[in-house]
Amino acid sequence: MRQFTAAQAGRRVFAIPTGWTFVQQHLLTPLLDLVFPPACAGCGRVGILLCDPCLATIRPVEFHHQPDLAPLEALGAVGRYEGLLQRAVQALKYEGATALATPLGQQMARRIADAAWEPGVFVPVPLHQHRLATRGYNQAALLARAAASALGWPYRDDLLSRMRATHSQVGLDHQARQENVRDAFALASPESLQDRSIILVDDVYTTGATIRECASVLAAAGAGAVRAFVVGKTGLG
Ligand SMILES: [Zn+2]
């Protein structure tokens, strides 16, 4: 089988700018599909972004519940952060393969439905505005929007804001990760979250330092249950 690099798989030659939703859906995407057909992020098969044989290789992870996750009430993931999911997240995050957010968000939605989670408001872990400006999009927001749309549940990206830029968590141990993100997030909207059930969304869960910091802010603002769902969960933490 022909080998595809992560840079080729799951992406087109160039990314469509965000904010072009209508034009993108109805004109650009169909046109680009003809000229640069989508390829599976796992194997490079042309015509689909995540093919069924690759999806079948995902290893599930146990859903976690309190008390080890406090202040999170529950955590779920599409699967282990390896193989297909790792390649897909990296392409989504670093290579402009924003189209992958739709099938990945649909996988999240399917597992949330299978686990019979109560409905909640999907809230992405925010990026700092500098990184947002550099990358052009927040991959967590694209994933959360796709999952919310698949389930027909609400989506809000204006509840949390990232107050300061943090260093990458990659390579940091558990304690360093916690210190790195401490007080990095704040409530962006003054409204009361009384009894709102929230589902935080991020691409990867490693030690959970980032997601738990966000959950603390939401819990302090009076949110009801705060749960989290990610694409991939690593073996760490
Ligand atoms: Zn494939």
Protein architecture, described:
The chain is of the alpha/beta class and 237 residues long. The strands form 2 sheets. A 5-stranded mixed β-sheet has the order 1-2-7-6-3. Helix content is 36%, strand content 15%. It has 8 helices and 7 strands. Strand 6 (198-205), helix 8 and strand 7 form a beta-alpha-beta unit.
Short description, anyone?
It contains eight helices and seven strands, in the order H-H-E-E-H-H-E-H-H-E-H-E-E-H-E. The protein has about 240 residues and is α/β, with parallel strands linked by helices.
Major sheet summary line:
5 strands, mixed
Name the structural class: alpha/beta
Number of helices: 8
CATH fold description: Rossmann fold
Spatial ordering of strands, largest sheet: 1-2-7-6-3
Architecture, according to CATH?
Answer: 3-Layer(aba) Sandwich
How much helix, percentage-wise, in residues? 25-40%
Beta-strand residue fraction: 5-15%
The value of Rg in angstroms is 17 Å
Q: Unreliable stretches, pLDDT < 50, 5 or more residues?
A: 1-9
* Average residue-wise pLDDT: 86
Order of helices and strands: HHEEHHEHHEHEEHE
Termini Cα gap: 36 Å
Small ligands present: zinc ion
Shape: globular
Provide the domain count: 1
Overall number of strands: 7
